Amino acid sequence: MAAFTVDFQLCFIAILLWLFSCFCLSAFFFKKRKEPELQDCNLPPSPPSVPVIAHLHLLLSVPIHKSFQKLSSKYGPLLYLRAFTSPIVLVSSGSMAYEKLLVTNLLGSHSLERTRLIRGEELRTFRAMLFDKATKNEAVDVGKEMINLTNNTICRMIMGRKCSEETRRLFLIASTVGRLLKKLGISLFEKEIMEVSQKYDELLEKIIKEREDNPNKKEDSYLIDVLLEVCADDNAESKVSRNQIKALFCGNELFLGGTETSGQTTSWIMAELINHPEMLKRLREEIESVVGKMKLIQETDLSNLLYLQAVVKEGLRLHPHSPIVGFTSMIINTYAVMRDPDSWEEPDEFQPERFMVPPSKGNKEMREQLDLNYIPFGSGRRGCPGSNLGSIFVGLAIGTMIQCFDWSIDGEKVNMEEAGDVNLSMAHPLKCTLVARDPLASFMSADP
Ligand code: HEM
């Protein structure tokens, strides 16, 4: 009996302690929100919840990605959950087939060719923005402007229209929080997503409705048109729901994977070129001899600009955006592999020449070396499906910035200190002032 009393007391104390810690945790980790604001929002569906803690038990179950996968297969890919009173939107992609559809209709070589015009237009806007900053003598945050460029371009490649300021804000939240969580297969956004949720849903509904009412001709169709066609087809091989199409725009890996990676890579490469003026000069000379002195660089020039390609490759080798990548049951330290002194001469030096294939080495040997030791885009099934598009983004931006402007920074050299753990970034984001170069300035000021 005595033993029973002690156990009962212990149990009681344990329950009290548990409840107390739950409340402490909630006060510490989750900000309180007012219910009326949430009721205003047009929220995604929500699974049954438990009193007080709401969906906390689901968020704490291990392994979390499996538990979320189970939830999304039961209730759909876009879910509204709560931990106590804190809102969470869970975005899970539906199926491999759906992912495949996205990748082939956006990143495949045929699609890249079809969307070249969009990238050309966005590049012109980017160049005009830089020209404007140069005229006003304003500093440029290279990474930030590159993220804007890639966001706008990917958005247009998907649905034929630009991102609004709001959308861009949402993507920026997604890229910060989502970066850590994408490995778990979830996207978790805080207050801001709930605030824009209703307006955002309305905007997406409007776009989808517009496309449904006026479908594009097949040859002019964007990814969104292909997805809507599959969504409407009951006999389609891979099922796509309306919610999945919406989920594509809030936190999908296409945006997370495509924007910050290109932004950071471009910043690192510009920093290396500013620190190595002789390489910057060589690159500029190559552009002038291949493209011409009176013509602005275009995507179709990239395949002829071998030194530019080598500069981009070397930037990706020294500063991989993902220093750690996971393969099936292994973790690979790409940073260490690409700086391994057994494979690379002077591995810590920025030397684009190493990617200019010397005639004595031959292409085969070079390719073997790259296959084994060059993995800035990961490798295998989990490797980056956007590697071609990423190289185009970075190559074009670097080519444009070097061809059209002279760059300067505060101080002698750019500080190359690294920051970040999951993703490698510059501890001191690259900010420069620029001057438009003659005679190209006259072309840029005439740009729209
Ligand atoms: C220079 C630019 C880029 C770099 C350095 C880069 C690098 C990477 C790396 C290393 C991974 C594998 C991550 C891992 O295994 O944990 C990855 C995955 C991915 N990337 Fe990229 N990427 C770039 C551009 C892009 C672009 C432009 C897109 C598309 C618009 C894109 C879409 C994706 C997607 C969807 C995944 C996830 C693949 C999966 O998990 O199955 N990336 N990227």
From TrEMBL:
GO terms for cellular component: membrane. Gene3D superfamilies: Cytochrome P450. Keywords: Coiled coil, Heme, Iron, Membrane, Metal-binding, Monooxygenase, Oxidoreductase, Transmembrane, Transmembrane helix. GO terms for molecular function: heme binding; iron ion binding; oxidoreductase activity, acting on paired donors, with incorporation or reduction of molecular oxygen, NAD(P)H as one donor, and incorporation of one atom of oxygen. Its main location: membrane. It is a single-pass membrane protein. It is found in: Membrane. Heme binds at C384. It comes from the Eukaryota. Residues 186-213 form a coiled coil. The chain crosses the membrane at residues 6-30. The keyword Protein transport does not apply. Belongs to the cytochrome P450 family. This is Cytochrome P450. It comes from Brassica carinata (Ethiopian mustard).
